[in-house]
């Protein structure tokens, strides 16, 4: 074999094994994901073959067959390609399977500008990989493989002295080289699964709703907080984390968590990013999930992480440092912690935390539910880079009477008396909040602007922006993202606002 032929054999081997590993891992990820099904992927197809895919999704029998073919077809095709067994058949089967994925969401026509792969026309990664498999199937050279080894034994048995039959022991070992590589990659994937869980973003799982994106009315305007350019509408983290604030509807937090699986969270984030929302504000426990999303997708979404001190250990900085280690962009002292520290006359903790955030080179935010907390901080000269304040009116059915409201009661005891707090009102004294916001010189991000779902978005968004919010942070399910962006765009076009924009 010439040097050129040897290079070609090595290159074909690497190409075949790389595609094989992709198939193999896709199959394993589905097999080890509890309850995995292609139902959602098939039901949302919008290409010219959508009727075919919808029919499969609508039939329990066909769907079960489809799921099994996806899981074990990918596994067997991937294994055959990786080790080089029945290469021609595996390549053609793989190309056929990729073609089925390709025509489910073809990168042309209605899907052109909504593809989760980017703005594509005809050629995407499925097209390229299928073309590579067809090339492997038709090209005479198949690389080092089990097929070559079997051919060697066949020729040996037939006493055929052909030199290209890998007659030397060295050639035999080369044809078995994929096995230890498979072992190493499998071990690495196993370790990764132990630390981050199964990669739920593998094929036929994540799909952004293309038609929803086509309904956008325009591009979200942005403002600045510190060095960060932030969309006026920010994605809230409560629905992702399962914090529903659902009053006495006890099932709702569980329902949120059941709907917002890791896969669904990724779909929501992808949709929000493509629609123009470039920032998310999350509770500290959601940091690992968002960090994983950013790593998997190379996402550029900016992350604001809420943090609190560890008062039991008098460690005010531990969660700040952990958030930074997770790769967040902005660090914000959590609203309930700000309220509790002011209430308990421990405001020096807030100052120390803010100083530590800034010493690390990060923008420092300060949130609260009770306006008394921010007033007290400002009086003490504790000024953040931006405030985050609950901003909603109280003209909704479940708001308890103003005369019974008590400062700092949010996140406190839930009373059975209907005249008192029961996780139902978060901006206790709206007029005091509006007065504070009108005077402050730093940007303000309003949150709970819908009173946890009690106020219509058109009403809540307008009230917050007109009363001085520079940004609003809103928890959104995937099916609400585009509607909320369009509502924001409509409101900002004819906004009556006295406070000048601070961000």
Question: Can you put this structure into words, describing what you see?
Answer:
β7, α18 and β8 (386-390) form a beta-alpha-beta unit. The protein has helices spanning 3-31, 39-43, 50-58, 60-83, 87-104, 125-138, 146-157, 169-175, 178-196, 210-214, 238-241, 252-259, 262-275, 287-297, 318-325, 335-343, 347-359, 371-379, 430-439, 457-466, 481-493; strands at residues 222-225, 228-231, 233-236, 279-282, 302-307, 330-333, 363-368, 386-390, 444-447, 471-474. The protein folds into two domains: 3-196; 232-493, TIM Barrel (Alpha-Beta Barrel), CATH 3.20.20.100. An eight-stranded parallel barrel has the order 3-4-5-6-7-8-9-10, surrounded by six helices. The longest helix has 29 residues, at 3-31. It is 50% helix and 9% strand. Residues 110-116 have low confidence and may be disordered. The radius of gyration is 28 Å and the shape is elongated. The protein is α/β, with parallel strands linked by helices and 503 residues long.
């Amino acid at each position: 074999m010439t040097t050129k032929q040897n290079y070609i054999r090595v290159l074909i081997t690497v190409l075949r094994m790389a595609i094989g590993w992709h198939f193999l891992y896709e199959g394993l990820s589905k097999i080890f994901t509890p309850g995995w099904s292609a139902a959602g992927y098939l039901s949302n197809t919008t290409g010219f073959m959508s009727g075919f895919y919808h029919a499969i999704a609508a039939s329990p029998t066909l769907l079960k067959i489809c799921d099994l073919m996806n899981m074990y077809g990918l596994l067997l095709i991937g294994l055959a390609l990786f080790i080089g067994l029945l290469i021609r058949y595996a390549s053609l089967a793989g190309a056929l399977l990729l073609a089925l994925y390709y025509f489910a969401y073809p990168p042309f026509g209605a899907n052109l500008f909504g593809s989760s792969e980017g703005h594509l026309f005809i050629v995407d990664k499925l097209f390229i990989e299928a073309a590579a498999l067809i090339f492997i199937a038709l090209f005479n050279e198949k690389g080092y493989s089990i097929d070559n080894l079997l051919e060697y034994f066949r020729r040996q048995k037939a006493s055929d002295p052909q030199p290209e039959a890998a007659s030397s022991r060295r050639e035999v070992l080369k044809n078995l080289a994929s096995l230890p590589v498979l072992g190493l990659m499998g071990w690495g994937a196993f370790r990764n699964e132990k630390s981050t869980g199964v990669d739920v973003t593998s094929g036929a799982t994540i799909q952004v709703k293309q038609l929803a994106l086509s309904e956008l009315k325009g591009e979200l305007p942005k403002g600045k907080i510190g060095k960060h350019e932030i969309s006026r509408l920010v994605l809230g983290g409560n629905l992702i984390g399962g914090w529903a604030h659902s009053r006495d509807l006890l099932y709702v937090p569980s329902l949120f968590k059941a709907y917002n699986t890791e896969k669904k969270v990724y779909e929501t984030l992808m949709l929000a990013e493509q629609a123009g929302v470039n920032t998310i504000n999350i509770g500290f426990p959601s940091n690992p999930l968002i960090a994983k999303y950013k790593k998997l997708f190379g996402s550029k979404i900016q992350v604001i992480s809420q943090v609190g001190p560890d008062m039991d250990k008098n460690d005010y900085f531990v969660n700040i440092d952990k958030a930074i280690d997770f790769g967040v962009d902005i660090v914000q002292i959590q609203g309930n912690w700000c309220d509790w520290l002011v209430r308990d006359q421990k405001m020096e903790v807030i100052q120390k935390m803010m100083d530590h955030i800034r010493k690390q080179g990060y923008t420092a935010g300060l949130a609260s539910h009770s306006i008394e907390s921010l007033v007290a901080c400002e009086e003490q000269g504790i000024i953040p880079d931006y405030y985050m304040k609950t901003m909603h009116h109280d003209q909704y059915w479940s708001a308890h009477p103003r005369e019974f409201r008590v400062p700092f009661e949010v996140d406190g005891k839930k009373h059975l008396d209907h005249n008192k707090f029961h996780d139902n009102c978060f901006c206790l004294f709206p007029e005091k909040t509006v007065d504070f916001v009108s005077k402050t010189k730093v940007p303000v991000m309003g949150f709970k602007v819908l009173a946890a779902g009690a106020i219509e978005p058109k009403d809540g968004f307008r009230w917050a922006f007109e009363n001085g919010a520079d940004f609003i942070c809103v928890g959104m399910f995937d099916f609400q993202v585009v509607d909320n962006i369009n509502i924001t765009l409509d409101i900002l076009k004819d906004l009556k606002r006295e406070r000048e924009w601070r961000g």
